[in-house]
Amino acid sequence: MAQFRKNIALIRNHIGQRLLCFPVKANAYGHGLCGMGKAAQDAGVDYLGVAHLKEGIQLRESGITLPILIFGAIHEDQILDLVNFNLEFSISSRFKANLAAEKCKILGRKCRVHLEVDTGMQRTGVRPATARELLPHLKTLGSLEVVGVYSHLATADPANDPFALKQIRVFQQLLSEPAFQQANLIRHIANSGGTTFFPEAYLDMVRPSFLTLGYLPQDCPASLRDLAPCFSLKAKVSYFKVVPKGAGISYGHSYITPKQTRIVTVPVGYGDGYRRALSNRGSVLIRGKRFLMRGTICMDQFMVDVGDEEVFVGDEVVLIGKQGREEITVDEVAKQCDTIPYEVLCLLNERIPRVYLEQG
Ligand SMILES: Cc1ncc(COP(=O)(O)O)c(C=O)c1O
């Protein structure tokens, strides 16, 4: 986790005195929800963000005491848990706000909420004109304490992206209005792209996840260049055999050995969320060398043609990460699957044990 702590220190340095929220939704982008939540708490992060109530409860049950904001829209029957687990949530409609306030009154409790404003993502959140009227209304409800107001950028990756600039301007304009001049209101809009490229979007808090995990966009500023991934995906060779020339490998025999060769088996498959699209395309690292996966990836295993190389059962296999001088990046895997790195990471499921090493 040393690299993760380093990433946080670099981002803190980059954003100055703002609060840092680390979104850990979707199992912290595959890195492990509670493990990363705990690491973030230990590293002095100010807030955690999740998509759903269930994720917030898991964090609380694992002993996380940081403020946790739920980004997704909530349902009426979740209010009791939201209050009991001390979870902050997003208000994205007057109707839900009224329901939440009513429920809280019955419970005799108060809950902390963030008003979500849609400045151009067209996902959740009220439009700025509605936000203008809704904020004063929320304050009259008594049982909702409005602690934040936020929006989300749709296109912040390229520096100077005009639509991101437009969203930031719309949000800033709204925030400059009298209703939003509340002391201690946490105003936030910057995700990884916003945090990397748009200082005007920092406001009171930033919410970068992908960046905090060490994944850099192109053309990122020098102050962030030492960020690095803190994640690798590894297995061990589980089987070895010599196969003759002309042998079909795995289901459907989509690979036929061109000569006698050594085939090793790796116990990872699409049942772990490791994409079947990598069949006959993806690589692994063994003993510091790169080898191709051969044949179709099975549910629990895949095969690698190691040619004449000496490889043994128990040898470390790197599917994502570094070994010796070689590296397989999430970006490379994503391109081979015709998707984005976020999806590759999020799909790696609970069957893969997460191990948190102090030096990594
Ligand atoms: C509301 C919200 N904030 C922040 C983030 C973090 O995004 P990123 O990982 O691109 O920084 C997300 C992720 O989709 C999000 O939905």
Q: In CATH terms, what is the fold-level topology of the largest domain?
A: TIM Barrel
Terminal residue distance: 5 Å
Mean pLDDT: 96
Structural class by helix and strand composition: alpha/beta
Give the name of the CATH architecture of the largest domain: Alpha-Beta Barrel
Could you give the order of the helices and strands? HEHHEHEHEHEHEHEHEEEEEEEEEEEHH
Number of helices: 11
DSSP E strands, number: 18
Q: CATH first level of the largest domain: which class?
A: Alpha Beta
Detail the topology: elements first, then pairings.
Layout: H1 2-15, E1 19-23, H2 25-29, H3 33-42, E2 47-50, H4 53-61, E3 68-70, H5 79-84, E4 88-91, H6 94-107, E5 111-116, H7 128-140, E6 144-150, H8 162-175, E7 186-190, H9 192-197, E8 205-206, E9 233-236, E10 239-243, E11 248-249, E12 255-256, E13 261-266, E14 283-286, E15 289-294, E16 302-307, E17 316-323, E18 326-328, H10 330-336, H11 341-347
Parallel strand pairs: 1-2, 1-8, 2-3, 3-4, 4-5, 5-6, 6-7, 7-8
Antiparallel strand pairs: 9-17, 10-13, 11-12, 13-16, 14-15, 14-17, 15-16, 17-18
Bound molecules: pyridoxal-5'-phosphate.
